[in-house]
Every structure is written in structure tokens, then in C-alpha cells.
């Protein structure tokens, strides 16, 4: 089991990762999308096609850092690359399912990409969403969606999460807004999960399942005008620390599985 693909790729829609120097010490590829238009929050069709073409060329497909949660819809593109039946395991304070009665949800967005994936990717068998604080378990009428809401009243075991993942293969997507404000700083409202708990879930899934890929988002958008401000420096430090711990968990489990094989 473990991570099937190798390598790390940073997708740069802004300067966020350029400021995370320790994270950049890991061997990686950089993709520069800073000049791309019509991609913030919503992705228009011409930009979507451009992103798909450029992402298809990347070599390092194991772990992908996407940037701000504004661009979480990139996961939809990455899911389309998978060639076997799989389960999406999403750690997020928002289900990103969208609402059918909103006309603008016909456009791929950071808030609707899971719905797009369920509709357009036949190999996607189920979406298991872990961590929303304002969503109930029966939020979606789609039987392929299983939600583990975190409201402070429930304590889900790793066994209970694994019990609803019926495929051998998974794809793991992590939005750091699932974490409490002590462990991460994002531009969206945040959940209550702590980083230790997240890493425990991650370890267990990587032991039990074959991961087609892993992506991480949830950065605070950074640009040259705010990158040196003290409060932004604090947020950069906090997010880099979380990114490093998540990355180390992924690499550790991948190394152990490859060694065992």
C-alpha cells in the first residue's frame, strides 16, 4: 500500500510557496500559473483547458501543493488522471459539493468541484469528506457522498472512516481549513481538527490503501505587497510548519511501504 506515484510539485498561483523556504528544500518541480487569468475561485473553460494541458506534462505526480483553497478545484483535474476505480478522501471544513439550484455552479469552482468529479469521472466510486463543522452527515442526497462532520460532539475512529472506503485505491485531498486556527491560517473559515489527528488519519489510510496521489491546499494568498508584513510572516510560518508535518507523514509512509515491498 502507500503512495503509488513519486515526487512533489508546487503549483504557484501566487507567491505563497516562494515564501516557504524550508518546504522548498525538498526536491520538487514548480509550475508557474501566476499570470493565468480567470482562475481565482472559479475556473472558466479556456483556463481549465490550459491548466489540464500544463498539468498533464508534469513528471512529479505523487504530492501536489495547490496553494490557496480558492484553487481547490485543481483536484478535479488531477482526479481525471486516475485509471482505476478509486475513492476520494477529502479533509475539508467545506464539502465543496455546491448546490444544484445555483446557476453559477455550472462553472467549475472551489465550492463545487466534488460535484463535477462525481458527475464526470466514472471511476470515482465515492467521496468521503472528513471534517466539516457546519455540515450534517445527510447534507448530500448523493449516496456516493459520506460525510464525517466535526462538531465537537463526535469522535470518529480511524476504523469507522476506513469502513466506508470500499476501493483499494484512494486519492487524498487536504484543505488546511479543516484544521483549527492554532495549526493553520487560511482565508476561509476553519474547522476544529488538530494537526496530530489529521496526520493519524493520513497514516492509517496510507497503510490500508493505495494512494493514487495526494494534494494539499489552504494557504493564505500572498503577493509582493503583503509578504513582508508581520502578520503575514506569522501565517506563512504556521502554514509552512503544517505543510512540513503533512509532507513528512506522506513521505514516511510511502518510504515504509516501498521498503516493505
Briefly summarize what is shown.
The chain has 261 residues and is an alpha/beta fold. It has helices at residues 45-56, 74-79, 113-120, 158-162, 195-208, 230-260; strands at residues 2-3, 8-12, 29-32, 63-68, 86-91, 124-130, 145-148, 169-175, 210-219. Strand 5 (86-91), helix 3 and strand 6 (124-130) form a beta-alpha-beta unit.
Textual characterization of the structure:
The structure is a single chain. The chain has 261 residues and is of the alpha/beta class. It has a single domain (2-260), classed as 3-Layer(aba) Sandwich (Arginase, Chain A). Helices cover 29% and strands 20% of the residues. It contains six helices and nine strands, in the order E-E-E-H-E-H-E-H-E-E-H-E-H-E-H. Strands 1, 2, 3, 4, 5, 6, 7, 8 and 9 form a nine-stranded parallel beta sheet that branches. Strand 5, helix 3 and strand 6 (124-130) form a beta-alpha-beta unit. Helix 5 packs parallel to helix 6 (230-260). The relative contact order is 0.19. The mean pLDDT is 92.
Amino acid at each position: 500500500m502507500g503512495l503509488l506515484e513519486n515526487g512533489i510539485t508546487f503549483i504557484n498561483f501566487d507567491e505563497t510557496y516562494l515564501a516557504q523556504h524550508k518546504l522548498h528544500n525538498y526536491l520538487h518541480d514548480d509550475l508557474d500559473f501566476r499570470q493565468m487569468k480567470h482562475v481565482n475561485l472559479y475556473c472558466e473553460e479556456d483556463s481549465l483547458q490550459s491548466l489540464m494541458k500544463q498539468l498533464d506534462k508534469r513528471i512529479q505526480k505523487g504530492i501536489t501543493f495547490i496553494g490557496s483553497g480558492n484553487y481547490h478545484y485543481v483536484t478535479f483535474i488531477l482526479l481525471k488522471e486516475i485509471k482505476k476505480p478509486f475513492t476520494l478522501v477529502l479533509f475539508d471544513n467545506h464539502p465543496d459539493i455546491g448546490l444544484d439550484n445555483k446557476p453559477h455552479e455550472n462553472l467549475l469552482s472551489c465550492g463545487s468541484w466534488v460535484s463535477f468529479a462525481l458527475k464526470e469521472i466514472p471511476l470515482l466510486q465515492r467521496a468521503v469528506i472528513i471534517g466539516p463543522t457546519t455540515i450534517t452527515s445527510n447534507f448530500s442526497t448523493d449516496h456516493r457522498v459520506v460525510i464525517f462532520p466535526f462538531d465537537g460532539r463526535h469522535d470518529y475512529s480511524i476504523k469507522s472512516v476506513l469502513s466506508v472506503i470500499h476501493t483499494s485505491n484512494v486519492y487524498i485531498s487536504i484543505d488546511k481549513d479543516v484544521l483549527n486556527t492554532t495549526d493553520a491560517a487560511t482565508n476561509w473559515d476553519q474547522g476544529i481538527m488538530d494537526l496530530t489527528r489529521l496526520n493519524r488519519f493520513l497514516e492509517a489510510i496510507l497503510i490500508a490503501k493505495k494512494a493514487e496521489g495526494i494534494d494539499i491546499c489552504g494557504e493564505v494568498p500572498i503577493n509582493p505587497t503583503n509578504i513582508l508584513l508581520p502578520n503575514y510572516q506569522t501565517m506563512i510560518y504556521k502554514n509552512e510548519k503544517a505543510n512540513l508535518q503533512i509532507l513528512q507523514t506522506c513521505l514516511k509512509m510511502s518510504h515504509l511501504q516501498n521498503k516493505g515491498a
